[in-house]
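Our collaborator T.R. sent over the components below with a one-line note: 'Predict the complex.' Nothing else. No constraints on interfaces, no templates requested, no preferences about which chain binds where. So this is a plain run: every listed entity goes in together, and whatever single assembly comes back becomes the starting point for the next discussion.
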Amino acid sequence: MKNSIRLLRAEKGWSQAELADQVGVSRNSVNSIENGKFDPSLPLAFRIAHAFGLTVEEVFDKEDAFT
Amino acid sequence: MASKITKKGAAVDIAFLASMIGFVAVMINQRAFTPGVHSVLLIALVAVALALNISREARKEKQLDELELASASFGARWAVTVLGIVMMLLLFVTPMQSAVAHLANAVENGSGVAMVRPSKTFLMGLCTAMVIQLGAKSALASIWKWTKR
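Returned assembly:
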């Protein structure tokens, strides 16, 4: 699923490892999600959105979920 | 805290490896012990190895995140298919059959317990299948994770 994690991370100045620490997953997982290769579970999507202070829909492209 | 957990994990891994090596050493050196002591040692070492392995797996399970769980699940699901295909192919590959037979003879000679041919074939077939399935599971999980990079 497309998302704006890379952009949001760059705005905050966080590395993938730092975001991974915050949401409680490995750096590999953040990398896979960021590249749209792996769709996170709902709880993890909420944790990622919460880390950026945004909603899930603001981080993940909901249109992509219907295609 | 994290380094304490890592050290404990490493200690459990080393203890598991030591118990497995001990098991093989005791199994091969049967003549060094009386039959009773030999059996007790083998049972004790298997029990220790099993207990340590449960602890290792529980620790690993806790550390897995959802990407890793998904890769493990993929590996486990498809390893059975790989096992079926490989076992079918092995039926037609004579050198592989000879290798399994040689392994069976080596184990039989080392343990000093004479086995009848069908049980030897069955045991070695079972061991080979387990090794193939575990190897395939691990390889498939790694490949799946690699494709998600």
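Summary for T.R.: Chain B touches chain A at residues 65-68, 70, 145, 147-149 (CB under 8 Å).
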